[in-house]
Amino acid sequence: MTVIVLAAGQSARMGENKLLLPLRGRPLILSTIGTTLEFTDDVVVVTGHERERMEAVLKDCGARAIYCPDYMKGQKYSTMAGIRETDDDFAILPGDLPLITADDLAGTYELLSSHEISRAIYQGIPGHPVMFRKEHRDKLLSFDGTMKEYLSLYDVAAYNGSIGSVLDADTPQRYQEILSKAKG
Predict the structure, then answer these.
(1) What's the CA angle centered on 50, arms 45 and 56, to 5 degrees?
(2) Within 13 A of 140's CA, how many CA atoms are on the CB side?
(3) What domains appear along the chain, each with residue ranges and CATH number?
(4) How far apart are CA 176 and CA 169, in angstroms?
(5) How many angstroms from the chain centroid is the CA of residue 13?
(6) Which of 113, 116, 115, 111 is nearest to 161 (CA)?
(7) What is the pLDDT of the chain when averaged over all its residues?
(8) At what angle do helices 102-112 and 28-39 cross, to 10 degrees?
(9) Rounded-to-integer distance, Cα 103 and Cα 99, Å
(10) What's the whole-number mean pLDDT along residues 96-102?
(11) With 90 as the cut, is the pLDDT of residue 95 above it?
(12) Other beta carbons within 10 Å of 33
């Protein structure tokens, strides 16, 4: 299983690079990556915006960084860059989910044994990770629509995950909520 961590965006709603904001004394993205590395040792981080800063943070974290030159065209391009890096079952996970748990990953993966696609949800809200059997690699790479459209074509198994599967750091308010929950 390869976990693809998306870390290429511009953090427009945050106003600064949300993945580099501090959480528990280190950049937020390292919390997300640390949890993924508890689950698998095959973690690919897709960089784009502020590539040099991001790759400096990632240097010794145990994940492999790849650069997506088309990151400004949208998340789809970063996702596809990550998918191209695997030939195994894979998961897609935004880098700004620092409270995701190893159980979120393991539980979602367990569903993949009997389903083609699985994802974590929290109180009915679709979250992450979204996991795919490797047979979906080429299908996704050639699909012209959005990920939401792709997922609508399949019966996606849902794992009841933690709030960490949906609590992203998209805005200053959400970041403050993450800081508050990380203390407790």
Answers:
(1) 60
(2) 30
(3) 2-183 (3.90.550.10)
(4) 8
(5) 18
(6) 111
(7) 94
(8) 40
(9) 11
(10) 97
(11) yes
(12) 25
